[in-house]
Specification:
By secondary structure, the protein is mainly α. It has one domain. Helix 1 packs antiparallel against helix 6, helix 3 packs across helix 5 and helix 4 packs across helix 6. The longest helix is centred in the C-terminal third of the chain and has 40 residues. The radius of gyration is 16 Å and the shape is globular. The chain starts with a helix and ends with a helix.
């Protein structure tokens, strides 16, 4: 176990940008209005479990399917590029029709621990020590929990314009991360 502050901070920022809990506040508010209650603890704990499980077993699952990490990372980088495009251009590429429970679907999965997040975990696993990634996941889930718990207060504080600006900024950061993941892994596939 090698706790490294730089790796921890980098992994935390990458996951924060991919999860985009601030950018998803408008969706969280719509779900809160529709379902009246969002179980913040349940959504955060389930997301944490999914992410840690995938961090350890994701590669095994991929091997069973005959997919290598670099190919999965390239596929994930394309998903990240689509998510960044949604954030920057304000379009919605992913649509979930009639979710049954807001706490697990769509909040825990795919909003928090979605394809982009899971792909990112496998991708950054090759660059960072697992303990730093786990700490980054935990910090992000604490932030997610706090945001879910106080989403209405945050919206009032930031205002719609503030949320819009944050979403664009994190979209550009995510786009850069997606491009880096794509170029790094595509080189490895062809070398």
């Amino acid at each position: 176990m090698n706790i490294n502050i730089k790796e921890f901070f980098s992994a935390s920022m990458i996951l924060f940008a991919v999860i985009d809990v601030i950018g998803n506040i408008p969706l969280i508010l719509v779900l809160r209005e529709k379902y009246k209650i969002i179980e913040s603890e349940k959504a955060s704990i389930i997301s944490l479990g999914i992410m840690i499980l995938f961090l350890y077993l994701g590669e095994i699952i991929l091997n069973l399917l005959g997919v290598d990490i670099n190919s999965f990372a390239v596929a994930g980088s394309i998903i990240i590029l689509f998510i960044a495009t949604e954030m920057i251009l304000g379009i919605n590429l992913y649509k979930d029709k009639n979710p049954k429970t807001a706490s697990i679907v769509p909040i825990a999965f795919p909003l928090i621990a979605g394809p982009g997040t899971l792909t990112t975990l496998i991708s950054i696993r090759s660059e960072y020590d697992k303990i730093n990634i786990i700490l980054a996941i935990i910090i992000n889930m604490i932030i997610v929990y706090m945001v879910l718990k106080s989403s209405e207060k945050i919206e009032k504080f930031l205002g719609s314009q503030g949320i819009h600006i944050l979403r664009k900024i994190f979209g550009i950061i995510l786009l850069a991360i997606g491009i880096k993941l794509f170029t790094t892994n595509i080189k490895l596939i062809f070398s």
